[in-house]
Specification:
The chain is elongated. Helix content is about 40%, strand content about 10%. The chain is of the alpha/beta class. It is built from eleven helices and six strands. The chain has one domain: Uracil-DNA Glycosylase, subunit E, CATH 3.40.470. A six-stranded mixed sheet has the order 1-3-2-4-6-5, with helices on both faces.
């Protein structure tokens, strides 16, 4: 021991720093992780779809349905949009058109399909004698969207947004009770039919929410792809023929 101390002094270790000696040759002990407090039960997550379904089911008419949608606070789109875009046209119409979401013009005016795509939609359906301004239900149109608020920069609707707003759309169709539905574009088909791929779906009658449903190209797509108007004209004639039955 004396020889060890003398060697340490010779090396310059001539002063004790700690109150107790430390064995530097011993293996370090494993560090134990700090004990955690017992896990508490996590607070249950709010089911925004169930909330939407309860609010929609409680609506007894279109006025109360619109109020329920206005009061729904769980869709973030509401915070950026100027206003809710509920519907347009004659609620007694045999044909209900369902688009995807409002754009800039619709957000400003508070009505669906009022921009360039809306003008083309009106022109398209006028050729088979259907109008949103018509009081006669046989010649009238009623128009709504899957989402009632404009997505920022007109981006595509997100699946979770469509899912939470679907109960309101289902109740909307139930209250209007149209004879036929037109699903305009991919996102309307995804919400109503659970399918997408409009070039494959268009022109083929399906059933959505208990109603015969015709998928069609969205007018915005036709503005970008005018050669697709030929298929759209065939779809309009199919709709006209179906209304005669």
């Amino acid at each position: 021991m004396k020889a060890s101390l003398e060697w340490q002094i010779a090396c310059g270790a001539d002063e004790a720093i700690l109150d107790a000696p430390v064995d530097r040759t011993a293996l370090p002990q494993a560090v134990r992780p700090p004990r955690r407090a017992p896990a508490q039960d996590a607070a249950p997550e709010t089911d925004v779809v169930d909330i939407a379904r309860s609010a929609a089911t409680a609506a007894v008419d279109l006025v109360s349905l619109r109020a329920a949608m206005e009061a729904y606070e769980h869709c973030d789109l509401k915070r950026a949009a100027k206003q809710l875009v509920f519907s347009d046209g004659n609620a007694n119409a045999r044909v209900m058109i369902i688009g995807e979401a409002p754009g800039r013009d619709e957000d400003i005016e508070g009505r669906p399909f009022v921009g360039r795509a809306g003008q083309l939609l009106d022109l398209m359906f006028s050729h088979i004698g259907l109008f949103r301004t018509e009081s006669d239900r046989e010649r009238a149109l009623y128009i709504a969207n899957v989402l009632p608020w404009r997505p920022p920069q007109n981006r595509d609707p997100k699946p979770e947004e469509m899912k939470m707003m679907l109960p309101f759309l289902e109740r909307h169709v139930e209250l209007v009770n149209p004879d036929l539905i037109v699903a305009m574009g991919n996102h309307a088909c995804l919400a109503l039919l659970g399918q997408r791929g409009i070039t494959r779906l268009r022109g083929n009658w399906k059933k959505a929410l208990g109603k015969p449903t015709l998928p069609m190209f969205h007018p915005a797509y036709l503005l970008r792809t005018p050669e697709a108007k030929r298929e759209t004209w065939a779809d309009l004639l199919s709709l006209k023929d179906r209304l005669r039955k």
